[in-house]
Amino acid sequence: MTESNAVPVEIIPESAFASARRTVKHMTVAAVIPCYKVTRHILSVIEAIGPECSIIYVVDDKCPDLSGLLVQKECRDKRVRVLFREMNGGVGAAVITGYRQALADDVDVVIKIDGDGQMDPALIKQFLVPIVTGEADYTKGNRFYYLKSVMGMPRMRILGNAGLSFFTKLSTGYWNIFDPTNGYTAIHRDVLSVLDLEKISLRYFFETDLLFRLNLVHGVVVDVPMDARYADEVSNLRISKVFFEFLGKHLRNFTKRIFYNYFLRDMSAASFELLFGVLLMLFGVVFSTYHWIHSSNLHVATPTGTVIIGALALLSGLQLLLAFVTHDVENQPKRPIQRLSQGNWL
């Protein structure tokens, strides 16, 4: 498990919260809650959202249980605005509906929290601190930071998330994050406004695809440690059904990211390390395989020089690829978009 950049909740100094509270007073913070079969939990989730949020968008994603109507009827919180989607589009579509409304309302920071009770609304300020202090454009939860939380998780969930996290690191370029499917997030409007919301995946791949889009615009992402909470909610995600779909989308995003960042928008030493590394590896595999088959057919030993040429090509290619990966790990976005848009270049 890769170590996260996130600062543990316990050691965030109180001065940081005080500074954040002063900043929040001059910012508008909204919460987006996608709703689909969450009638048992949605009202308690809304009730637990603190004064940090001045607007709460409840997005009814054509919920068969009529979550939106329940909120309209039972909720007395004046901050709540219920948005109804005409057809079910998945969690991504519901969140994007909330994002668009937040942009239209000129909201500064948008928190996304699920309506099923798995996410503790008391943690909202933890997600706000890195953003309102100008350290990040986007924050997301990490349920794997604390060992006590990990030990309480099902083993298959741990293994599945570890695999997803590895592929996410490759496809998004954010090597310092974990728990990519975590939907507890916060985003600053400056980065939200430059994202192409039309192209983001709308269902279970939403959070991962959003990270890929954030990398393309050089958004700074920070993990926020959190405990996992499991109650009587039922997840609709089945890894066995989406594994190959996710694998294909990760491969697509990885290819696009590498092409955009290392060949289209910029070229560096890493670009040549990747190019010649791949070529040498391919040459080594093809050359060695051909001569091995040829020697086998003739029932003779492969000449030592031929073996050395193939091995040298493979080792040189591997070394160049490792050098590229090292550069890619170091090449993560470091300067928040929100600070650039405000003219703070130092």
The name CATH uses for the topology of the largest domain is Spore Coat Polysaccharide Biosynthesis Protein SpsA, Chain A
The averaged pLDDT comes out at 86
Classify the helix fraction into a percent range: 40-55%
How many domains, in number, for the residues? 2
Uncertain residue segments: 1-12
Major sheet strand order: 3-2-1-4-6-5-7
Task: Look at the structure and name the CATH superfamily of the largest domain.
Answer: Spore Coat Polysaccharide Biosynthesis Protein SpsA, Chain A
Major sheet attributes: 7 strands, mixed
Order of SSEs: HEHEHEHEHEHHEHHEHHHH
Provide the β-strand percentage band: 5-15%
Rg from Cα = 24 Å
Structure write-up:
- The radius of gyration is 24 Å and the shape is elongated.
- The protein contains 13 helices and 7 strands.
- The chain has 346 residues and is α/β, with parallel strands linked by helices.
- The model is unreliable at 1-12 (pLDDT under 50).
- The longest helix has 30 residues, at 269-298.
- The protein folds into 2 domains: 9-261, Spore Coat Polysaccharide Biosynthesis Protein SpsA, Chain A; 267-330.
- It has helices spanning 14-24, 42-48, 67-74, 91-104, 124-132, 147-151, 155-172, 189-192, 206-216, 239-264, 269-298, 304-330, 337-341, and strands at 29-35, 55-60, 80-84, 109-112, 138-142, 185-188, 221-225.
- Strands 3-2-1-4-6-5-7 form a 7-stranded mixed β-sheet, with helices on both faces.
- 37% of the residues are buried.
